[in-house]
Design goal:
This protein is mainly alpha-helical and 484 residues long. It contains 27 helices and no strands. It has a domain at 405-484. The N and C termini lie far apart (134 Å). 37% of the residues are buried.
Length: 484
């Protein structure tokens, strides 16, 4: 008997199986290769230096470190992130072959914002020596470095480079130039650039107004603000903060109140900067109650906000409240700065708290590491003088690391007049005349002090000295007392 071939039996046996079972199991498929995310993407998603260093190590291992785009993203995180490391970024930059313009701009930008902003200028000089052409993004960062470095000479040189590269009409570059000139005190050149600009956006208007306000040109700031309004440009919070600053210095309460009403009408968000400007404007204009309400309503405050309120209270005779606010500040662990202590020491002067003032003055360096400035010494001389401790005040002036100015010496002279101390007054007048030989006011004060104690020969002698040097007492003018 012939048997069917094996293939037939195999097929016949399969015919009894269900259709699903006739399919042989598939071979297990290999897992698909998942493309790893790019290093640049990983760098953009980085959250810490530890994470970034791992990415950097992988780039070195896989020879991707020479990919300038990926390397630039790593460097950007190190240089510009709050959790970055500028030194690490600089090392990365130094070890990059032929860094591109983005990398140059990044490292210049990072150094412009650093405490050593002059390094950004040196980096730009290296960039030019290596033949890299700067662009419109380079100059705003470089001008910011000049601004932070308070270098008008560097600003002028950068301005020349801007013109050379044909970027003198770029709005952001022009804005950087105006800011640099304004911040460095050359507001006239800044205004020339502003007037020559064929196009002006809100940012440039705000920068120019802010420059006037920073340079105590309050009238000019308000006039420019009026011109801006006439041209139909609506201000933002930064513009309004600058105008309010001008109102504060000029005593323009009416305009300040109108701006406050405009802020409420337009529903403009009052952040820290604008809120501080409002508090400062009302406080300097003596509307302490409104300033206090605004201060209390602010959900977030910075040191400038506290200073505006403390100084406002102190300068308008509310010394006790100013000291209470300073205690609140300490309780909330808000670190004071040098301006805070000017306000606190002024408050001590107004309230006659001599011992408290002495403690505060000593605590500046001891507890807060704040270097005393001449304004603090002026407050202390005034405070000691009011308390009749004239010898201590004179010794304090002698102990200063810089030569006393007329304001400090004038405070001591006023105290000598009030306490009839001619001996110290004579020495103080001599020092003031060394600084201002034609200051006839001090002759008048000393002459009046001689007259009050009957020293008429000295009165005649002083009058003769005044005639010999060509000084003449203005009729009805004696002395504006320096007392707060």
């Amino acid at each position: 008997m012939l048997l069917p071939p094996k293939s037939f039996l195999f097929k016949r046996s399969l015919s009894f199986l269900s259709p699903l079972q006739t399919h042989l199991p598939d071979r297990p498929s290999l897992p698909r290769r998942i493309k790893p995310p790019s290093f640049s993407l990983l760098a953009d998603q980085c959250t810490s230096m530890a994470h970034l260093k791992q990415i950097h190590a992988q780039m070195i291992v896989t020879a991707r470190i020479h990919d300038n785009y990926a390397a630039s993203r790593i460097m950007s995180f190190c240089a510009l992130s709050h959790s970055g490391d500028l030194d690490y970024a600089l090392k990365l930059f130094e070890n990059t072959q032929d860094p591109n313009s983005f990398m140059w701009n990044t490292i210049i930008r990072a150094h412009a914002d650093s405490p050593n902003s002059s390094n950004a200028i040196f980096l730009y000089m290296r960039m030019r020596r290596q033949g890299v052409v700067p662009g419109k993004h380079t100059f705003p960062f470089l001008l910011k470095a000049c601004t932070n470095h308070h270098s008008i000479s560097c600003g002028r040189q950068v301005h020349a480079h801007v013109v050379k590269h044909g970027l003198d009409l770029d709005l952001y570059v022009v804005n950087g130039l105006i800011r640099c000139y304004g911040f460095c005190g050359n507001i006239h050149d800044g205004r020339e650039l502003f007037d020559e600009s064929p196009e002006r956006n809100l940012i440039i208007w705000t920068t120019m107004i802010s420059g006037y306000a920073q340079n105590f040109c309050s009238n000019e700031a308000l006039m420019l603000f009026d011109q801006m309004a006439m041209e139909g440009i609506e201000p933002n919070s930064a513009t309004l903060a600058s105008v309010l600053s001008a109102c504060a210095r000029l005593g323009g309460l009416d305009l300040g109140e109108r701006i406050h009403a405009f802020i409420r009408e337009k529903g403009i968000e009052v952040g820290v900067i604008l809120g501080t400007a409002l508090v400062d404007m009302y406080a300097k204009n003596g509307v302490i109650s409104t300033a206090q309400v605004l201060f209390d309503e602010m959900p977030e405050k910075n040191i400038a906000t506290w200073n505006a309120m403390i100084c406002g209270l102190a300068n308008h005779g509310y010394g006790g409240r100013a000291l209470e606010l300073f205690q609140d500040m300490e309780r909330l662990k808000v670190l004071p700065n040098d301006i805070t202590f000017v306000g606190v020491l002024s408050a001590c002067c107004h309230t006659g708290l001599l011992e408290v003032g002495c403690v505060v003055f000593k605590s500046m360096q001891r507890d807060y590491g704040i270097d005393r400035k001449i304004e603090h010494y002026g407050c202390m001389v005034n405070l000691l003088g009011r308390g009749g401790r004239l010898t201590e005040a004179e010794e304090l002036i002698k102990g200063m690391k810089w030569k006393a100015d007329v304001v400090v010496l004038g405070a001591l002279l006023a105290a000598c007049k009030n306490h009839e101390n001619i001996e110290i007054a004579e020495r103080v007048v001599k020092e003031i005349l060394e600084l201002e030989p034609h200051n006839h006011g001090v002759y008048v004060v000393l002459s009046n002090m001689y007259a009050e104690v009957g020293r008429w020969e000295d009165v005649v002698r002083l009058r003769k000295v005044m005639r010999d040097v060509g000084l003449k007492k203005t009729p009805g003018w004696s002395l504006v007392d320096g007392d707060e």
